[in-house]
């Protein structure tokens, strides 16, 4: 069953993807509340605008410790459960503690923006783990398993997160961190924060300072972070955490220095036992001037190297602070600035309130399937919409054109009728036989009246109707008929005339009666019918055809007579 503090934290959590880099960092211990407000500059630098540390009065301190011990149940137990009735934001923090938080927030000018909240090293578990994969989804899943297996506190609901340290040759090294949720809720209540942009670990702020300054973090470096009530000793090699330990201190500067050196001696002894080649390149002390002086005085026999107090950092500007505020910052707030430097709002740092989520590998396939299905549905809907709209437009156009066609149909029919009439008339008017030219051409076949005499000529036009063909054209196929009756000097002359007509181009000849004798003027009568489809004569030139019958009959060409009988 989820504890009451965990339920409070779950309600206060916001998705990590919406988190922005905070500009304020707060932390608290049993006696003090500290805070830093900074402005981010170009290149990831910080310009500190305010630094505050407020310590409880001596009379209130006893009350604070007593109420804290009663609220936690077991003094100093990292996984002690908090009584739900005492863990709320209204009842878990005594009035004196609430006053400290309010004073710090007022001095920093902290508005509604959630701050970064730092936990002490004593309240957390830290460690590295090497994972046999460099795939992001697998690394996240393995890190979650490692947190649940190695960093879970039995019987206590805890929060954990990880961050990448190194990745090479198919393997990944991650830094794992965990803390009991009751401690997180208690720290949030101590600093008076309803929610937080990020919950980090103070010791990682020291590592961030070393990583951002190569001249400080090169080699193996020991950093001693001493405040009024606690001390954290952190060992890092080239900006990578090796060891970190936190413990409580109290008393004046000299007594605190003695406790620090004693604990440091045990820590270094354990590290040298594990790694005999361990050599410190430098020691940095972060704390007030009196405590730093006392620690540095006895440091060389313990660490084997001289140390120095950290008073400035290339990525942190203190120009906007007053001298008193600068001393406050150097005494207790440098690690908070390191956490602000570390936080870039990209989720690549430890955040116990918004742990790095696991990647659902199957979600990629589901997303692709859903994306394809969505695209198909959208395409289908779009096609149906545009198709229906086009169909309606086409129907409207069809109806409009149909109405126009219906209205224009009578006019079209009149136009077609007039067109057919004109074309019919054009074809009909072209049927104009040249009767006189034909009569003249026929008369030229018999120019000599002594050889041939025409008694009668009749002409007739037939098949002159205009027809409409399947090809859509008007045609007329007229036929001209000429009935000739006459007499020839002899039968040979009549036959020669008939042969001349047969040879004529475009003319069909037929005899209308039997050959006989005994004409009125010449002895050999004849009767022929000429048919032709030519409207203009093509019977030959004048004189040449007329002389042919007589010439054929007598064997010689007689002279053509210039006189013609009308």
Walk me through this protein's architecture.
The protein is an alpha/beta fold and 566 residues long. Among the domains are: 214-312, Nucleotidyltransferase, domain 5 (2-Layer Sandwich); 361-426; 435-554, Alpha-Beta Plaits (2-Layer Sandwich), CATH 3.30.70. It has helices spanning 4-12, 58-72, 95-108, 136-150, 181-190, 202-212, 214-217, 253-274, 289-297, 300-303, 323-342, 361-429, 435-443, 491-503, 544-554, and strands at residues 24-28, 32-40, 46-55, 116-119, 125-131, 158-168, 171-180, 198-201, 220-226, 230-237, 240-248, 282-286, 307-309, 316-317, 452-462, 466-468, 474-476, 479-488, 508-511, 524-532. The strands form 5 sheets. The chain has a 6-stranded mixed β-sheet with strand order 8-4-1-2-3-14, with helices on both faces. A 5-stranded mixed β-sheet has the order 11-10-9-12-13. The longest helix has 69 residues, at 361-429. The radius of gyration is 62 Å and the shape is rod-shaped.
Structural class by SSE content = alpha/beta
- Rounded radius of gyration (Å): 62 Å
Described by strand count, sense and barrel closure, the largest sheet is:
6 strands, mixed
CATH class of the domain at 435-554: Alpha Beta
Helix content: 40-55%
Oligomeric state of shown chains: single chain
Distance between the termini: 143 Å
Give the name of the CATH architecture of the domain at 435-554.
2-Layer Sandwich
Overall number of strands:
20
Strand order of the largest sheet: 8-4-1-2-3-14
Counted by DSSP, the helix tally is: 15
The portion of residues forming beta strands comes to 15-25%
CATH topology of the domain at 435-554: Alpha-Beta Plaits
State mean pLDDT (0 to 100 scale): 81
Specify the overall morphology. rod-shaped
Uncertain residue ranges? 11-20, 58-93, 541-548, 555-566
